[in-house]
Amino acid sequence: MASGQTSPAPKRNFGLSSVTRAINELTIVVGFVAISVYLAITTPSFLTSANLLSILLASSLIGIVAVGETFVIVTGGIDLSVGSVVAFTGVMAGLALNAHIPVPIAVLLGVGIGALSGGFIAFAVTTLNMAPFIVSLAVLAMARGLAFIVTNGNTIFSFPDAFDNIGGGNIGPFPVAALIAAAVFLIAGLVLARTVFGAEVYAVGGNRDAARLAGIPVTRTLAIVYIISGALAGLGGVVLAGRLDSAQPIAAVGLELNAIAAVVIGGASLFGGKGSILGTLLGVLIIGLINNGLTLKNVQPFWVQFIQGAVIFGAVLIDSLNQKRRGG
Amino acid sequence: MASGQTSPAPKRNFGLSSVTRAINELTIVVGFVAISVYLAITTPSFLTSANLLSILLASSLIGIVAVGETFVIVTGGIDLSVGSVVAFTGVMAGLALNAHIPVPIAVLLGVGIGALSGGFIAFAVTTLNMAPFIVSLAVLAMARGLAFIVTNGNTIFSFPDAFDNIGGGNIGPFPVAALIAAAVFLIAGLVLARTVFGAEVYAVGGNRDAARLAGIPVTRTLAIVYIISGALAGLGGVVLAGRLDSAQPIAAVGLELNAIAAVVIGGASLFGGKGSILGTLLGVLIIGLINNGLTLKNVQPFWVQFIQGAVIFGAVLIDSLNQKRRGG
Amino acid sequence: MATGLGRKTPRKCGPDSMTRLLEMQGISMGFPGVKALSDVSISLDRGEVLGIVGENGAGKSTLMKILAGVFRPDAGQLHLEGVPFSPRRPKDALDAGIIVIHQELSLIPERSVAENIFLGHLPRGRLGGIRRAALNREASRLLARVGLSVSPRTLVRRLGIAQQQLVEIARALSREARVIVMDEPTATLTTAEQRILFATIATLRNAGVGLVFISHHLEEVFEICDRVTVLRDGAAVETRATKDWTEDALIQAMVNRPIEALFPARHATLGEVLLQVEGLSSAGRFEDVSFELRAGEVVGLGGLIGAGRTEVLKTIYGALPATKGKIHVESRERHIRSPRQALSAGVALVPEDRKGEGLVMPFSLRTNVAMSTLTKVSWLRSILAQGRIDRLAEHAVEDLRIRTPGIRQLVRSLSGGNQQKVVLSRALTTKPRIFLLDEPTRGIDVGAKVEVYRLINALAERGAAILVVSSDMLELLGLCDRVLVMRTGRIAGMVAKADFSQERIMALAALG
Amino acid sequence: LAWAASAAHAADSYTVGLSVATLANPFFQGMTKGVQAGIAQHPDLKLINTSANGDANTQTNQVTDLINQHVAALILNPINANSIVPVVKEANKKGIPVFTLDRGAACGDCQVNFLETDNVALGKEGADFIAEQLKKRYGSVKGNVVDLEGLLGTTAGDEREQGFAAELAVLQKDNPDLKLVAKQAADFDADKAFNIMTQLLAAHNDIDAVFNGNDDNAVGAIRAIRQANRFAPIGDPKHIVIISIDGTEQALSAIRKGQMDGTLSQNPLTMAKQSVAYVEAYLHGDKASIPAHQFWPHMLLTKETIDSPAAKAYGLWGDEVSQ
Ligand SMILES: Nc1ncnc2c1ncn2[C@@H]1O[C@H](COP(=O)(O)OP(=O)(O)OP(=O)(O)O)[C@@H](O)[C@H]1O
Ligand SMILES: Nc1ncnc2c1ncn2[C@@H]1O[C@H](COP(=O)(O)OP(=O)(O)OP(=O)(O)O)[C@@H](O)[C@H]1O
Ligand SMILES: [Mg+2]
Ligand SMILES: [Mg+2]
Questions:
Q1: Which ligand gives the minimal distance to the CA of C442?
Q2: CB of C417 shorter than 6 A to ligand 1
Q3: Whose CA is nearest to atom 4 of ligand 1?
Q4: Which of A127, B228, C30, C406 could form a disulfide with A10 if both were Cys (CB 3.0 to 4.6 A apart)?
Q5: What is the DSSP letter of D115?
Q6: ipTM for this prediction
Q7: Ligand (nearest to CA of C231)
Q8: Set of chain D residues whose Cβ sits within 8 Å of the Cβ of B176
Q9: How many CA atoms lie within 13 A of C483 on its CB side?
Q10: From the CA of A52, how many Å to the nearest CA of chain C?
Q11: Does domain C273-346+432-511 have CATH number 3.40.50.300?
Q12: What is the pTM of this model?
């Protein structure tokens, strides 16, 4: 055994994975920039600060929810319940406020109920070993039902200003909701990319059996991920109720599909192990940009859905062509 | 080393697989029977032939669509577009009829457009290597948009009787739509369980790389599966338009989630490789029974969604507990 | 080889027996950052068994995947019976009668054994229906030929990994073959199955089929092959008739350096009992397993496939539930219910199925190595310290001589043996005192094997206790201080070093 | 009418089947409550109530189930006037009288009575209201108008838009400075309206008035104006006129607070009670008093009129329904 044996010198692919990832995100960035430039040129009011802030504001609810969805999707799961949970937590917080419960407690209640609902999904997925898709589909129906049951179908409205400001206030020129979303993105981005927990989330999504045998607390990781998603949906419910000064049991129908679309446009794989908060941010902003463009350009409403679908398709198409070109 | 040496005799696993499968389906059957008995005892009008036929009729649309979804899910894919495709093909067939195109051609047009839309998904999934979830989500939005665009948002109505009979007529005591659904289930059941194509569908879903290495035409199999799903959604669109003597661009919103729920209640796994048409039939009928029961028992509408969610959860829970008990 | 379901009679010899059955000429192939093959030429005659040996990552599997139509070469030609041949997908190769049993198992877990065997050419009846009766009948016949006695209706999911390997072999026999390639078919097999496989190979050879046999077990290569080609660093360095090779020459050609002893000497002193297992049972898996491991001791666990060795290891490790029994680690009773608890009790496991349970394939080497010690390579046990992770991975690459372009290489693109080293290096990061190694040298080349043995010795010398499951009899005898033998879920007996012989172990493993 | 014979039901109690399009909007709740209240006034009537959750096929299935239960009469609030026709005809065949609420069945006399609000008129009056307010502000009908449509493909959304667009076109002919700066579908969804309005406010700093397809759209518009710091009280030259349709509790509250100019109120409660009264009359053989079609009156509610005796007489259903 000659000990001087060397392995073949690393050639051009040292750190390839991070370069690859950067290129991946670059594509989205390019798409993002292209749409922005197009809108800036064709629509005078696009590049005003009021308009740009309005995009951030419009993206804040879906953004908050999409962050939670990112965690879930990176583990290879999916959470279809978030739209219904936004509605349910919104009306619960609203009912609490109408019962003169102080604002901070009502906010905590909304987030807490969201976390509980996430905990329920987590329990079913981990302990009962049920498929996330179907569990969260069941919770989608149950949470929506509960939202109607507790409100008797009525709109709950007229909340204290302190509450409304969470969704509808401004700090300086910045909408509070957008600031909250920014904080959520920042913290989640650091957690997923830089912490032990984040690494565990990726490992569980990459290969659950291997993660378990490597000593990673798979059950705990999965549970936390669904609780995060539920809690953020709860936060979304609070933000939405505040923004509209009212909470409706029918709110946010279909929000989950938009959130999932944003996460996937951002480069995550529904098979798990792949995705990032930065990607999700770009995905959310692309959707926001497009909606903004459609509004600014006064596109005929009939076309809006079609164009949104085409954009989702285009974004993922570019990503997959890129991967192909790189021989992935 | 003695060369006549044999490995230890197989112990408890002779033919275990079919027993397992039978037990699995048995659970659904038991659930199905339990619900039926409960309704029969507590609701006098449940066991009338008119009511039972109405359950079949009510289940026929979701059933036809769920059959296509079963093929897709067994390959490990998913088709979220079916609800929108039902609406789009319905209005296209309707427009054709209103342009005095003969009924059979209008029917073929509806089915054909559905197949085309499935072909589009197939192309994106196979050749472009895009994730089925996101492709079909994009098609969901695009097909819905197209349905609005071609109709200008209007309802298309007043079709020839020959067309309406497809969805709303009877042959003897039997609703034509239910007979069509029965035929679809029968043929699909035979194809999936008994043919080489069916085995290939399972193989592609069970382990795609292995299937390719074994020389199975993976791309073709996947393509056919999405085309089947699209074509059956098209057939669903025709049946629905016939039944309502009208076609609306807003029809069948969310139908995909119900169809997927039925397939999963029927024992299919969203990871692919597992599922059966018989299971899907039971899943569809359970959903039909529950909706019927909720009306017959005059359950307050607010509770309906909650109960539907709870039933989905319960069905899959039983299945997973069973699997656990067997140490699966 | 027709099986009765095949359409034509078996092709014995080509029309022109002067042309070679198969020629691969000047094959080159690169992956991003890796030149896997450069200008490799091999040839194969009818009725010949060609052995291909080489270190991990030498390019053996890549060459065969080119033949199978999985990869397309960057340069080079293939000729089949003198006719140019360029398979674009696996089906092309299969249709031409080239059957490859790939190194990675490729079965459909939720389908029956019979369907898996005939996958891709199921007997088609009217209207595309499957002829089930014929299918099961033919599958039974093939199963008997490979010595696997399970019902053709059993789901593959229910089979152990070795049984699955036999199904793969049966699958190759189901096709009308001109060339059969076996890429490490014996890696998971015990001696008994290996004997049956060799008998089968002999029959195939006599029927005029050309075979390529890849193995890291050189004694097997010497036994079954007519010629042997050595690949090193992507190049074919030498081909000779088997009789012209000696083991030393072969190893020398493979590693380009001399190997002194396959099993290096160990100078460990036995210390206190580190692991004591008493009456351990796991319902339906194994019963009443008791043994102890001492510091500095290397104990083998032998047995036939399906004996339950993997299950014993996984149960001690907390990955499977124990239904009875006690486990003492360093004289303290421990209730280990999860791998996490096992690791913190100082017990590490290297699983046998590295693709399914060992590695996260789409992740980098670095991430895979760090997976068990994330909190230790972080600040405040929660924020990852990238520099520490890099150093951990770099050390792993150095210590175990992992052949990789860099620590950020995806493990998916490492060769099998190097992947195994990554799993081993991860187990080392938790600094355990008790090692449970399940087939630790499966699919590893000789050079790497010796390194693993040295590593095991070094661990033992530092006072670790090591339990090694292996289906390689020579390894058990050469490496271990004593060998426990399992039969159908029970410990059938123990063989002390003084009594070591293959016959003793086989007798305990197989006889009633 | 051939099926009238079944009114000779000898039973002393009748089961009435109700199918509303959805319960996702307070208006339909008002309708359900109105039917329930009406039934409660008649001891001989019992109710089975269902909601179709916005899906025409579900509604057809539910009505089929009700028919198979042999209800004595059906009160239907169809999702779509055309798609309900087959099942209405089915009911006719079985001798079950059908009463339609808010939206009819497109088969003429297949229903005993069709009671609705005039959606086209609502849209038209919305345009007129805006014109009037602008005239007050500028002395002439001019200014920039935003149209937040309802959900496309629904009768309410489409007919209101139709009425609004037609009237706006008429107004624009005489007043070329009356401009429609944006028309977007807000889908009867407050959050969607909020997002669209936020962006429109960023793009146009001179919006004078917003027409809303319903009160939920208006809620979103109001909140967007507040968030953008563009709110000015009614009467202020910078005030953005908000007019919508329905009269939900939240709209009433916003009008009282001066956040919103007005809503064209319907009254689903009284309308539904009336429908039950027709059912009762019909089942007791009194068919002469039942009109085939009837527009239920609507009323413009503004800060001035909302607490007037006239409004009280008309009924503030939004306030009543949540009690
Ligand atoms: N899909 C792939 N992508 C990138 N590199 C690959 C891929 N497959 C193999 N390689 C690289 O090609 C080289 C040859 O690998 P190959 O699997 O052919 O080796 P091998 O001789 O079969 O080794 P082993 O004995 O370990 O199975 C290795 O350096 C490996 O890392
Ligand atoms: N098809 C099957 N159905 C049920 N149980 C099975 C089946 N195959 C194996 N088992 C059980 O699983 C246990 C161990 O199987 P496995 O092949 O993994 O054993 P092993 O000794 O670890 O073999 P290996 O040599 O492959 O490591 C045995 O107790 C056997 O009874
Ligand atoms: Mg190899
Ligand atoms: Mg084993």
A1: 1
A2: yes
A3: C413
A4: C406
A5: E
A6: 0.85
A7: 1
A8: none
A9: 30
A10: 34
A11: yes
A12: 0.87
Percent above pLDDT 70 for chain B: 90
User: Please, which residues have CB within 8 angstroms of residue D149's CB and are 6 or more apart in sequence?
Assistant: A301, D157, D160, D161, D183, D184, D185, D186, D213
CB within 8 A of B19, min separation 6: which ones?
none
- Which residue among B7, B12, B13 is best mutated to probe the pocket of ligand 2, counting the most ligand atoms within 8 A of its Cβ? B13
Q: Which atom of ligand 2 is nearest to the CA of B11?
A: 31
The C-alpha atoms of residue D164 and residue D157 are separated, in whole angstroms, by 11
- Residue B85 main-chain phi, psi, to 5 deg: -65, -35
Distance in angstroms (rounded) separating the CA atoms of residues D282 and D16: 12
- Sorted by where each begins, the domain ranges of chain C are 105-160, 273-346+432-511
CA-based nearest residue to C194, from B5, B45, B65, D230: B5
* Three-state secondary-structure class, residue D17: strand
Dist CA A165 CA A159 (whole Å)? 10
Closest atom of ligand 1 to C54 CA is: 21
Closest Cα to residue C414, out of C433, C393, C431, C434? Answer: C393
Q: How far is C140 from chain B (nearest CA, A)?
A: 13
Strand partners, D51: D20
Helix (H) or strand (E) holding D156: helix D155-174
Calpha distance C50→C42 (Å, rounded): 9
Largest alpha-carbon pair distance within chain A?
A: 81
- In chain D, the percentage of residues whose pLDDT exceeds 90 is 88
Interface of B with C (CB under 8 A): 1-3, 5-10, 12-18, 190-191, 194-199, 202-203, 206-207, 209-217, 273-274, 327
Segment holding B246, helix H or strand E? strand B246-247
Each residue's pLDDT expressed in tens, for chain C with a length of 512 residues: 444 443 344 444 444 456 899 999 999 998 876 789 999 999 999 999 999 998 878 899 999 999 999 999 999 999 999 999 999 999 999 999 999 999 888 899 889 999 999 999 999 998 889 999 999 999 999 999 998 999 999 999 888 778 898 999 999 999 989 999 999 898 778 788 889 899 999 999 999 999 999 998 888 999 999 999 999 989 999 999 999 999 888 888 887 766 667 788 888 889 999 999 999 999 889 999 999 999 999 999 998 767 889 999 999 999 999 999 999 999 999 999 999 999 999 999 999 888 889 999 989 999 999 999 999 999 999 999 999 999 999 999 998 888 899 999 999 888 878 898 899 999 999 999 999 999 998 877 787 788 889 889 999 999 999 999 998 888 999 999 999 999 889 999 999 999 998 888 888 887 64
All structural domains of chain B with their residue ranges:
12-321
Choice from C31, C42, C401 to test ligand 1 binding pocket (greatest atom count within 8 A of CB): C31
Which numbered atom of ligand 2 lies nearest the CA of C162?
26
E-strand spans in D7-139? 14-20, 45-51, 73-76, 98-101, 113-116
Furthest-apart CA pair in chain C: how many Å?
74
List the CATH code of the domain at B12-321.
1.10.3470
Q: pLDDT at position C18, please?
A: 63
Determine the Cα–Cα distance for residues B90 and B233; give it in Å rounded to an integer: 10
Euclidean distance between CA atoms D265 and D308, whole angstroms: 14
How far is the centre of ligand 2, averaged over its atoms, from the C-alpha of C159 (Å)? 7
Size of interface A-C (CB pairs under 8 A): 129
The two counts, helices (H) then strands (E), for chain C are 16, 22
For residue A98, is pLDDT > 60? yes
Both tokens of C458, joined, read 């070094």
Q: Which two tokens stand for residue B98?
A: 């209103």
Mark the ranges of chain D whose per-residue pLDDT is less than 50.
Answer: 1-10
Cβ–ligand 1 distance for C415 under 6 Å, the answer: yes
